[in-house]
């Protein structure tokens, strides 16, 4: 009987000691579990655009105002739609500040047809040639476009059909953008206003102002 009691007491102590031990213990100083996803490499940034660029653009000229003077009389009338072509060559000289030249030619800047009769008029510009200095600031939004604002002062020569040559200052203001086709080739668009301050060279003169749009393509190098 005594042996039975000792056996039972021994079994109870063993069971109590086993229950007191933790079911599972992590080793001290064990490394944290590995993450399932590996760290992604940093995205590569696009290289900067080349410093120089050249573009050619078609120039629709709308909502014109034509001022003429002949025989001492000055008159202003609405201008018909005119069109032209422009060339631009610029260099990025400092952190987006662009300097260059932008010659352009405009044709058939006539006075709008008479609204009563619908008859076309021959009064106005046959050809106009402008040599412009381009001063612009450009800012690139990566993956979207390069946006710019520009001022282009220059010298203008107008050859009107029935009168003498008119010469003088012309000012162009515009904002626009360039969309990359590649890092070197781009398409450009611009909207702005052109104001002419040409003066008479003999007995008559013409000057004009237009809403100016430019649509073109270019290359950087």
Characterization of this structure:
The chain has 221 residues and is mainly beta. It has one helix spanning 2-20, and strands spanning 52-70, 73-79, 82-94, 97-101, 104-110, 124-141, 145-160, 166-180, 185-200, 204-220. The chain has a single domain (52-220), classed as Porin (Beta Barrel). Strands 1, 2, 3, 4, 5, 6, 7, 8, 9 and 10 form a ten-stranded antiparallel beta sheet that branches. It is elongated.
Q: Please identify the top-level CATH class.
A: Mainly Beta
Please count the beta strands (DSSP E, at least 2 residues each): 10
Shape: elongated
If you average the pLDDT, what whole number results? 81
Reported for the largest beta sheet, the result is: 10 strands, antiparallel
Helix content: under 10%
Treating each run of at least 4 consecutive H or I residues as one helix, how many helices? 1
Taken as a percent bin, the fraction of beta residues is: over 45%
Number of domains: 1
Radius of gyration: 39 Å
Q: Give the low-pLDDT segments.
A: none
CATH architecture: Beta Barrel
What does the secondary structure layout of this molecule look like, with pairings?
Layout: H1 2-20, E1 52-70, E2 73-79, E3 82-94, E4 97-101, E5 104-110, E6 124-141, E7 145-160, E8 166-180, E9 185-200, E10 204-220
Antiparallel strand pairs: 1-2, 1-3, 1-10, 3-4, 3-5, 4-6, 5-6, 6-7, 7-8, 8-9, 9-10
